[in-house]
Amino acid sequence: MKPVSLIDPKAALRSDRSGWPRHLLSCDGLSIEAVEQLFVAAREMRLVGRRRVKKLPTLRGRTIINVFFENSTRTRVSFELAGKRMGADVINFSASGSSASKGETLGDTARTLDAMNPDLIVVRHGAGGAPWFLAERLSCSVVNAGDGINEHPTQALLDAFTLSEHIGDLNGKRVVIVGDIAHSRVARSNIHLLNTLGAEVICVAPRTMIPAGFTDALPATWHPCLDDLIETADAVMMLRIQRERMKQSLFPQDREYSIRFGMNPERAARLPEHAIIMHPGPINRGVEIDPAVADGRRAVILDQVENGVALRMAIGFLLLGGSGE
Ligand code: CP
Fold first, then answer.
1. What's the confidence (pLDDT) of residue 19?
2. How far is the CA of 72 from the centre of ligand 1 (A)?
3. What is the pLDDT of residues 62-121, one digit of tens each?
4. How far is the CA of 13 from the centre of ligand 1 (A)?
5. Is the C-beta atom of 74 inside 6 A of ligand 1?
6. 1: CA distance to ligand 1 center in Å?
């Protein structure tokens, strides 16, 4: 695909966005062409983020509302920065302090926001399916910024972008996802997307952290032992244990979990030379990842964060396009 210069807004407006859907709700069903188009745009957007003046006029006059019913640092700040760097007017809405805390339904909140004529609503919600519910009812585009344990497509897209920047074409590469698969929307979105891009995905977790039927429903396999795979992984993605979503503990002690499933310096040293260690954040230092590894040479956690802003700028561009003026 021929790269376009998005820094030149006229070139940006001429570029092809036809492969992109109106909403971004899931990684399931995204085409390789759409993902490649996004990565080309994200590479250009990352250059904008590294300039002294980090601003494009591409979304000038467009309105984005970030609606967060769950806590967030990376996703919310990066969507806000992305919108502002593209010149859009960005409003941040969180459930606490809104009329949702007075009992307003999601449908009524959505209809209220839609009446203000935004161009894009970015939503994070504790209930799986909430972004689809909104997409059916709103006249603007909707982006899923994480719905319950279901999906987190922009995280998976920034992960795949980071992977491809570090280890090249993902076709035939082995990505090992380690940890609390049961509660991970990041794992679900990554499995869909990495499968589309031709990577092999192996989930490593205690049996209690793999839902029944998981590997029948998704294109990934389960393996109970990280040490068996460490020498053949091209990338290892560590996941946080999401205690806030657990009704009961799924393992006896943090220390035992860390010994069996944690990424420590000894395991990191056994990875192939080119292999990288990823984490969507927030990290639990000393549980799923040792601080020396999190801050070490193989970890690309902060690259993921930088790429998250660029990727979300590219998503805004591809969903909304330029102002045409
Ligand atoms: N990775 C991620 O979604 O982080 P936040 O919860 O901080 O947005």
1. 66
2. 5
3. 999 999 999 999 999 999 999 999 999 999 988 887 888 888 999 999 899 999 999 999
4. 31
5. yes
6. 31
209/245 Cα distance (integer angstroms): 12
What is the residue type of 144? N
Enclosing H/E stretch for 204: strand 200-204
Q: Kindly tell me if the per-residue pLDDT of 280 is higher than 80.
A: yes
Q: Which domains does the chain have, with CATH numbers?
A: 7-151+306-320 (3.40.50.1370), 153-304 (3.40.50.1370)
Q: How far apart are CA 224 and CA 206, in angstroms?
A: 6
**What does the mean pLDDT of the chain come to?**
91
Tell me, rounded to whole angstroms, the distance of Cα 25 from its chain centroid.
11
The amino acid at residue 117 is: N
> Does any ligand 1 atom lie closer than 6 A to the CB of residue 242?
no
- The one-letter amino acid at 5: S
- DSSP SS3 for 54: coil
